Structures are given as structure tokens and as C-alpha cells.
Amino acid sequence: MTTTSTRPNAIDRFFRISERGSTIGTEIRGGLVTFFAMSYIIVLNPLIIGTSPDSTGAFLGGGDAPNLGMIASATALIAGVMSILMGLLANFPLAMAAGLGINAIVAYSIATMPDVTWADAMGVIVIEGVLILILVLTGFRTAVFRAVPAPLKTAIGVGIGLFITLIGLTNAGFVVGDGGTILSLGDLGTWPILVFVFGLVLAIVLHVRKVRGAILISILAATVLAVILENTMHIGGRGEDNPGGFNSPPTFDGVFALPDFSLLGQFDIVGAFVHIGPVALILLVFTVMLADFFDTMGTMVAIGGEAKLLDKNGNPPRTKQILIVDSVGAIAGGAGSVSSNTAFVESTAGVAEGARTGLAAIVTGIAFLLSTLFAPLVALVPYEAAAPALVLVGFLMLTQVSGIDWKSIDVSLPAFLTIAIMPFTYSIADGIGAGFVAYIIVKLARGRAREIHPLMWVVGALFVIYFTIDPISALLGV
User: Fold this and answer.
1) What is the distance in angstroms between the CA of the first residue and the CA of the last residue of the chain?
2) Cα 305 to chain center, whole Å?
3) Residue 186: how many CB atoms within 10 A of its CB?
4) Looking at residue 7, what is its pLDDT?
5) Taking the CB of residue 345, how many other CB atoms lie within 10 A of it?
6) What is the b/e burial string over 373-397, where b = at least 16 CB atoms within 10 angstroms of the residue's CB?
7) pTM here?
8) Which residue of 128, 161, 264, 470 has the fewest CB atoms within a 10 Å radius of its CB?
């Protein structure tokens, strides 16, 4: 008589898939959903750092014209490598890519400084990554994370939920900027909005019906609709002369394209010191580092909360490994000339699809690596098709708000500011900083200074400097 072994296979054991209530198929599906939700970075990062010349008039990659294809290839390569590394070392469903916000700082604030080249600007990112890695290896970054009160960690997750909802709505053009009311509804009578609404309705219906792969199915179905509309109606891309166009129109220029990785290694640490100057360099590194430092902390809490992987104190498993890989991502992003790579909050889309382990991050990473070869296929997925996933995930993350004691002013007021300021400033770090500073102020006002962890005092002071960095720079004349 023979018996069938129920012992999990090597992949299952290594990633603890069954232990976390998942399956290999679910992890693969979740990894693909995460990739589709964040694949826009392959197009967007080149548009941010590739279309602005440095102070010498040269574009990233050299020459007097943008090198968008070269930047896209390097962006996908570094994102793929770092996502795979996160999956292998941290076993956490967290993918990485060039961080939005930081890339804008590099393009518009650092590279445009007098005598600064793109290589110098990327050197600043490498320096910042090395310093952050040192803080992790010495235990400081992990200690700061553990010193944050659990309700504030929950608020960070909720704030990120609203933040990615806003990202989804604005990427789809459903919400647009408005001088009179800050934000307003976009033109709902356009074909791209129809694609978004179709994807969102489908995602909601499938989710409510508990259909496996609901988010992935909605992305693929909305993409098919977008491709059909584009090829029959010839809608084109959104612009001043075409306000009803796609944010990123689905395009097909073949299946295969050879990548160009010439950007790798084009950074200059010495040039950063020489051309920027020590005082200005310190301020720049501090600004970028603080944003990097807390963005990932907030993201891993949000993902851990959605995946039910946090302990009673709100800490995810393998916190130190997550932070180490994230720090290496900053170094790799600078060395690859694509800006600091950091944890992507869009990973929550994969978690909502069921991802619970690092295998999902590896799948996302492999998809990024393949996209360097099959970039034309990635271009088929418009923002409008991927955005519904972010909106649905925002809802799922918002449900964590019940974990905050709203009757306790000590935590509820700081939590509120964290949640509100994060989406309104379009910055995870700004929301976290506002919450931390408010927490200290409330505790002092209530005569409970002894309840403030010593590291919270340090972080609070750093955030005060962070918020006042512009007048400090002006005062120092840098």
C-alpha cells in the first residue's frame, strides 16, 4: 500500500508558502499583479530623469537629446534585480523600483545645480544609499522602526491606502487638478475613463464574488478593451491638444527589443563632493535619505498589515533584511543611473491578490527583467487599465483604520494627521513626519513626556529639520 506525501516541496518550504496560507499559483498571480500595477515606472522614470538636461546641457546617458530607451532598460533591470533580491533575502511580497519623488529631486534639484553633471547627481544617491545601509547594519534604522507606537504604524498603512487610491484616480484621469477646488472630477465622457470605470467595476464585482485572480483579470480585461478602442477610435495620448486621450496609450511596436544597458556605472562620487560642495551635499543627502528612510518603513507596514504578517507590535518578519535590501536598492539605483530604488507601495496590489511571500516579489522581478526584452508588450497596458487595482487596494488598506483607538487623543490626533497629510502632500515621508511631530507635541501638552521613546525625540528633531530644510539652505547660502 502506498501513501501520497503531503510534505511541502522545497520551494514551499523555503518561502514558507503553505505556512502563510498561500500557494505557489497564488504567489505567481500576485507577483504578476504587482508588476502590472507598477510597470508604469518603466515609462515614467525615463520621462522624469531623461527629459531634463543637467547643468552642462547634457541629457542622462550623454548627448543633446533624451535617451529614453536606454533609461527604460536600466530602470527595468535594476527593479528586476532588486525585487528578486528582496524575495530571496527577506521573503516578503515587496517589489522595488526607482522611487517617485526622489527621482524628481535628482532631476530638478541636484542635476541642475551649477557645474553638476548627471554622474555627480547619481553619485549623491550612491552616497545616500551607503549611509542608509550603515544605519541598518548598526541597528539604528530597525531600532527607530520598533520605537514607533503601533497605532502610528497602523495610521501609516491607512494613509498609504488613501495615497495609492489618489495615485490610481489621478493616473486614470478620473481626478484632475483644479485651481479652484484643488482636485475635481475629470472629463467622464472620454474613452480612457470608460476603460478605467470598466476595470474598476469588474474588479469590484469579481472581488465581492470572491473570484480568484480578480485584480489580474480586471487589468487584463481593461487592457483588451483599451487596445480595441485605440485601434478602432485612434484615441492617442493625453495632452493639451488631446485632453481626452490615454495617459499612456496602448501601443504595439512588435514583441522583442534589444535592451541598452550603457547607463550602468555612470556615477561619480568624487564629482559630487567637488562640484556640489560639502555643506550643500550634506543637506541634499539628508533630504533624500530621510525620504528613503521612512518611505520604506511605511510601505512595509502597509504591506505587512494587508498580508496579516505583522506581529503584535506592528512589525513585519525579517525587518532588518527588508531594510538592508532597500538600502542596497538606493546604491544600485545610483550606480545604475536610474535614481534610488525603493519599496513600491503598489506591491499591495499583489498582496490583495493573495501574495504572502517573497516568491511573489521574485515573480515581479522576473517580469521586470523580461520587460527589458519584451518592452513593446509592457507598453500595451495603459495607466487606465492598471489604476483600478490601486483603488480597490486602497479600500482594503483603509479597513485597518479600526485598529486605531480614536478615543485616545494621544494617538488619534497624530494618526489623523498622518492619514490626511500623506495623500494631500503626495508624500509618504511628509505624512509620517507630520504624525511623528504631532505625537511628540500631544504627549508634551498632556504632560506625558516620559512616555516618548528616546528615538522618537531624535526622529522628531530630524523631521523638524526636514520640513525646514529650504529656509536652512537659504540661511547657509547653499
Assistant:
1) 80
2) 16
3) 22
4) 62
5) 30
6) eebebbbbbbbbbbbbbbbbbbebb
7) 0.78
8) 470
